[in-house]
Amino acid sequence: MNYKTLEFKFKKANFLYAKYGLNGTVKKILNKKKTYETYNEWFLDRAVSVKELEKQCKMSLKMLNKPSIEVVILPGSDDATDYKAIVSLENQTYSEWKGIILEKESNKKRYNINYENVGDFEKMILDKQINISEQIQNIVRATDADIVLFTRLDQEIEPNYLYEMVDNYMNETFEVYYTDADCIKDGVHYAPDFKPDYSIDMLRSCNYIGETFAVSKSLLMNAEIFYDLKLDRVESNIYSLLLQACESARAIKHCPKVLVHSTEKNVDINAVLFEEKAVLERHLERIEQAADVTVNEKYKVLDLKYKLNEHPLVSILIPNKDQVETLARCIESIEKSTYDNYEVIIIENNSTDEKTFEYYEELKKKGIKVVVWQSIFNYSAINNFGASYAKGEYLVLLNNDIEITSPDWMERMLGNCMRAGVGIVGAHLYYPDKTVQHAGIVVGLGGVAQNLYPGLDGKVGGYNNRVFTQQNYSAITAAMCMVSRKIFDSVGGLEEKLQVAFNDVDFCLKVAKAGYWNVYDPNVTALHYESKSRGKEDTPEKKLRFAGEIAYMQEKWRKILIEGDPFYNINLSMARPDFALDGIEKAL
Known about the structure:
Blueprint (H helix, E strand, L loop, with lengths): L2 H31 L5 H8 L3 H13 L6 E6 L9 H7 L6 E6 L17 H7 L3 E4 L2 H7 L4 E6 L3 E2 L3 H11 L4 E10 L2 E6 L6 H6 L7 E4 H6 L11 H15 L3 E11 L6 H18 L4 E6 L4 E6 L7 E7 L3 H12 L6 E8 L4 H12 L3 E5 L5 H9 L6 E5 L3 E3 L4 H9 L4 E9 L5 E3 L2 E3 L5 E3 L19 E2 L7 E5 H6 L12 H11 L3 E12 L11 H17 L1 H6 L25
Parallel strand pairs: 1-2, 1-4, 2-3, 6-9, 12-13, 12-15, 13-14, 17-23
Antiparallel strand pairs: 4-8, 5-9, 6-7, 6-8, 10-11, 15-22, 16-23, 17-18, 17-22, 19-20, 21-23
């Protein structure tokens, strides 16, 4: 272990100690070393203990200014006796709650319970701790509760759910709150759903937040949120409620603990998707964001193509050294684009083959610019230099070994880039053998940052079909990405201290730090003719340079490297790029 590695581990230990104290730090270190055969073992090992539950009960009684909770229980399965949510509420360590079952008038008879031979949870219905109503709008606006929790009748929540939620609310007030989840059958936990922190683009692609979530009363009072009983499916209405809440919310909190359990339902997923498509289209109308929405039935997500209200000039920057055939393939793929307002700038860097300069002359006749970078190879400096010649409002960074396979790629990237709050837009890249080369980057993976799913069969969706889900990532590859010239200049372009490695990651993190979303669009596709063995640091000079780039990133982005990438999940392994669970080390 070298000095830099030791130094980083020491800094991480100090950070953990400051955040969790001695006992918490020791527990985290020990848990990292544990291995499990199944997710069920993993879950049970981390489940809250009886001792901790007893402690929470005592602490909740001593709390001052305790937030009150209104639990809105949405319809569950067709089984009217599946009252898991109510049973779960009865067992909570935090007791300042009241509930209401939202149900259509025609279905209220399902809850006509007699006093004879009933359990405690049924008495809660009879004694009006839990009411049944059809008028959610009036309930929400009339309630005195500080937090409104939405769940389904057949959802099971952990006994510490309300306590954890209240603790988060009191320490870091939220407007929307959600947790991780899994499925349960015959007492066995499976299919864990480890979610990212709030991702606006992922939510528009699918309801990744789930069917149990909370909103603050302050948000409900200031936003027009309604439950549309005209929708056929409760899943669609939950999605509608989430979109409405997140339209106005400024603080959306994700708790990375598995606190919600679902049971398998016989649901027509495609039918749900088509109804959710209509829900999403209404959401886009409300926020005045025009987009074409289609249902991806294969991967069970919604695909969005944002419409352009302008036709700006796009400047495509391509660094190049020799490799005439490679560059020609890239140029030919650009010429097949359906968007026509663009310019191409080749940044020549120390070519020696005479054929290269002959090809440049051909390109110049087509109106393509060729500018000359006369110094050593420095990817960041070369692109910054090329950008100084660009006239476009939007810049595309493009490797010369890229062959674009989606003709509408510029419209799709522009549609995202021109949205308020969006920074960099990245593409879905394949190797020539049609396996995945890039589907997003996780910061911290493999030490500093790494592409997700390299080498995965290009037809496989990966964990929760995330390979084919438009979503936000902390970083995306600069092999093919788009950014507005304004944002590029505002963050100082690419960092020239990073000559080869991590310059795209650093660039994305700078843009994210400035308050913008970085977007991965799986429908912008290209082949990347990068050798899978490319990039090995196999000479002393390369190793020294690479070590310096690692040290730079570890120092500059210390906080995210220690706390974890918000668009990944702290429960997932940082040693594998395929959403393996930490402690099991195999893909979920």
